[in-house]
Structures are given as C-alpha cells and as structure tokens.
Amino acid sequence: KRRDRIRNFSIIAHIDHGKSTLADRILEKTSALTQREMQDQMLDAMDLERERGITIKLNAVQLTYTAKDGEEYIFHLIDTPGHVDFAYEVSRSLAACEGALLIVDAAQGIEAQTLANVYLALDNDLEIIPIINKIDLPGAEPDRVRQEVEDVIGLPGEDCIPASAKDGVGIDEIIESIVEKIPAPQGDPEAPLKAMIFDSLYDPYRGVIVYVRIMEGTVKPKQKIRMMANGKEFEVAELGVFTPKPTPKDELTVGDVGFMIANIKQVGDSQVGDTITHAAKPTPEPLPGYRKLNPMVFCGLYPVDTNDYNGLREALEKLELNDSSLQFEAETSQALGFGFRCGFLGLLHMEIIQERIEREFNIDLITTAPSVIYGVTLTDGTELEIDNPSEMPDAQTVDHIREPYVKAEVMVPNEYVGPVMELCQKKRGDYVDMKYLDENRVNIVYNIPLSEIVYDFFDTLKSSTKGYASFDYELIGYKESNLVKMDILLNGEKIDALSIIVHRDSAYDRGKHIAEKLKNLIPRQQFEVPVQASIGQKVVARSTIKAMRKNVLAKCYGGDVSRKRKLLEKQKEGKKRMKSVGNVEVPQEAFMSVLSMD
Ligand code: GDP
Ligand code: MG
C-alpha cells in the first residue's frame, strides 16, 4: 500500500542547533535535487507564483527517497515556527506528524526550547529520533550530551545519531532511521473526512491557502467542505502538494500532507487546529486539540501623525488577513488621540507587527507599554476583563484582581543559579523546582506573573547570565494578586497612556523610577513641568523637568551654517516621534519607559 511508505515528520531544536542546515541536507538527499537545482526550482516556483498567483511558503514539502530496502518512500517534512509565542502553531504542526527529528547541539547540550519542543512532541505521541549535531566542533561533547538526552528527556542515549549537518556526516543514517522508526500514518480512507489545518496563509490572487494533514477519509476537488469550528462551508477548488513546486493532485487521502484552495476569503475561516470535514457526510467528532487562540499581550498603537489614522487601520486590516491571532479595535486616548488597542500572542508577535506597520506601511507609531489581561472582581460581584491599565476601575470599587501566571523554565550553567533565582524572586516568582541536567547545568522552574515577564525579564536574564541562559514559558492560569493602578501626571494632568498596573509592594520603587526616567526623557519645555506618580489620590513619587533656558539655535548664531542645519534636522527627526500631550511634548520612548527598569 502507498500509505505504508509515507513518513510525516518535523525537525525540532533549540534555535541555532542546526534545524535549517539539516533540512537542507535532507532535501539534497531526497528530492534528487542539488541545492542549486532546489534554488532554481524555487525561482520557478516564484515565476509560477506570478503566473498562477499562488504564494509559496515552504512549510510542508513532499520528498521521495529510495531506501536501503529498495522501496520508494514519500516524506512530508513539516516546518514549525521557532518561538515560544507560537507554541500552539508548533503543536498543531507536530500533530500533523508521526515523528520528529530532535536536534541537540553537541557543544551546547539541551536548552530550554529543546525541552519545550520535546514536551509538545510527546503530547502528540510522536516517535522522537534524537540527533547530536555539530560533532565537528572542537568543543563538541557528544558523550555528555548523550547522557543528558537519557537523563533529562528519557530517551536511550545509544539511540542518538551523531551528526554534522554542516559536513554532511550522519545524514544517511538519519534518513534511514526516518524510514525505520517513524510509523506510517493510520486511518481509514473511506471514513468521513477529517483534515487538520496546521497552517494557512492569505494569497492575494487565490484567497486563503490551507495547509492540511488528512487524518481520515479522502477529499477531492469540487467537493463541499465544512470548517468544524464555525460551520462555514466552501467548495474545494484545488488540492495539491509542494515538491516544493505546488503540484495539483486529484485527491488527498489518509496520511497525505498538502494544500487546499477553496475560495476562502480570510484566514480567520481556516483556523490552525480546526478540522475540515465533508458538508454532505460530516464526521460527528472533530479532531482533538483545537482551541481558539487568544491574545495575551495588549498595547495601544497610535499614529504619530494623526493623518495616518486611516492608513494605520488599513495596515492592520491587511495584516489581519494573514494573521488570525492579531486583534485590534479602535480606541481613543486623551493623551494620544485616535488609535487602536491591539492584542498579540506575545512580545515577539507584538514587535513583528509594529515593525511591519512601520516598514511596509511607512507609518510612524507611538506604542504604549504592553499589558496583560487582568481579571477584576468588583465589590458588587461584577466580573471584568481589563487589558488597558487606564480602564482599571477605582480602587474603592474593586474587590480583588487576578493576573495571568506562566510556568517559566530557565536553563543555566551552575554559576548563574544565584542570579537567576534572585531575578525570579524579584519578579514575584514562586519557586517550583530545580534539577541538574548534568554536573554543570541546571534547569530552574518558577511560576511567575506574565506581566513580570513582559516587564524587562528577557533583558535582565540575558545580562545577568552573560547570555548563557535559555528560557521558555507557558501560561498556567490566573491567580489573585495585590495589584494597584498607578497613574502618571505631567503638569498636573493625568496621562492615560502612561498608567500601569503594579504590585503594591513595588509601587513606590516603580513610581520613583518612572518619575526620574521621564524627567530625563522628556525634553525641557518653555515652562517647568512637574512629573508625578500617584495611586488613587496619593502621590507616591515626583520629579521636575526644569524650564528651557535659551533657544538651542542661539549658540549657533554666527557659527557655521552646516552645523546649524544639522541641528535643525536632528530636531525635526526628534519631532517626528513626539506627541504633544496636554501642552507637553513627549517622545515615543516615554510611553515605553514605564516598562524598563534600567
Ligand atoms: P537553526 O536555527 O536551528 O535553523 O540553525 P541553523 O541551521 O541556521 O544553524 C545555526 C548555525 O550553526 C549556522 O551558522 C550553521 O552553519 C551552524 N551549523 C549547523 N550545523 C552545523 C554543524 O553540524 N557543525 C557546525 N560546526 N556548525 C553547524
Ligand atoms: Mg533556521
């Protein structure tokens, strides 16, 4: 049977351990193409993109390989995103597989994302093939890493395949083990259709292109399909696989991994993890594991130039076409005017979107400090969800506030255990566990409020461990905390965009820090500007921005002209990012400054 010769797998690794390099080596050996030809094919594919209007995203390639047993096997190599923000997408891509190649760097050993990925693979019952890569490095310690794989992950050390993706060592053994160890897909081609969506993207010509793995049944062009999450129905226009060229097929059946085009207009209608079934003969049960992705981090995005407001909305609408986890709604800030409250999966997701708006759409943004979603219970019993600190109700009406917690795992060499624990404590972390990975490295587990991770955690972790720590986290739920809203006043006026939620114990320190910081960030004005941090009516910290003494240009009079022009340009550049708040000119950095501790 053809299905017995299908192998569906992913490559999982901590960043830089060699995933892309190994994928290239496997492609060379299996597509009967050299890398050169592969690139040419990709160029052809791009021509094709122009002719037929189909976007290529290489996250599921079909490869063929003739094994030592003389049989020809069909591989589907499924790519996974590489960041903690996208853990759900990773888990769905893995759910499309029966196995995973786990790469561990022979010099670095197991890192935080190695473990995070292993957990996701185990959740999906995947056969894991451990590979110790970069054995060519002078610092490689394959035996130590082998032991780590055995002790920490629980896979037999002797199963590890030593390899150098760079030098092409171990590649044949890896590919043979894909054939031998990873099970062929199971399922009934006659059963009602169950196709799992593991990715989708918006193509301007063809609409949404859905990446699917067929778990049960068979699907053909012209058939009516149904998205089980929202019940919407579409007609299949085209099916196919990427070789890497998009190659149309007249059916996709059990075990197949490929693409589907069905005149779907927005990615929101083809959500990752959802099950596609036939409209005429639907399956009673969707596949397990689907969940709607909810943003965890929110911030306000405001155009620096108010004329860019409509442009900003169009930019967000365009980005949303391809990103169903991006959320936004119009909001007005007294300080910043018209803008949008946007929700993201995490900080990286937020940064990506901000950068794309600025680069691709050429709109300068003022970004407010990111916030998590707080659960608020009022004294009258009302429950609220607050993602914008300025909307936190008055303290007198609040009974209690809950905040999201994450389980954070940090892996570090021994000598940094002290600084890491100190940091986690400072971030209000609850100690959970500490384990030695080997005699030199430790895995430290804390439950920490997500808001503390958003607030400066990465940077402090990096600097206090000289970059040796790796870090990963997952949301574990909500917990009550003693939180208060802190307002910032400039010239006596409350600036809503600068409000934050803080723990009562650190409110005083934070207030003092922010007042000092704003004093240094906000340029002197024509008049003296008091800066105050307050909780309710009580001012907890203050500073003063002194009045400007004389015109900056005055000292250039009579001086050389080019210097003067430079100064003017510099001022203009600075202006671009200024927002007039009340009658105080406030630079972009000020809105983020409430976050960082440096
Ligand atoms: P990814 O982030 O997991 O996709 O890692 P890459 O494949 O991009 O590799 C990260 C870096 O490690 C690159 O500079 C590669 O050239 C290098 N690299 C990958 N495999 C090997 C190997 O086997 N030996 C050595 N010395 N370097 C490697
Ligand atoms: Mg890579």
TrEMBL record:
Record-linked InterPro entries: EF-4 (IPR006297), EFG_II (IPR041095), EFG_III/V (IPR035647), EFG_V-like (IPR000640), EFTu-like_2 (IPR004161), G_TR_CS (IPR031157), LepA_C_sf (IPR038363), LepA_CTD (IPR013842)
Q: Does the keyword section mention Transcription?
A: no
The chemistry this enzyme catalyses reads: GTP + H2O = GDP + phosphate + H(+)
Q: Which branch of life, at top level?
A: Bacteria
Example GO CC term: the record gives:
plasma membrane
Q: Where in the cell is it found?
A: Cell membrane
Entry-linked HAMAP family: LepA
This protein is called: Elongation factor 4
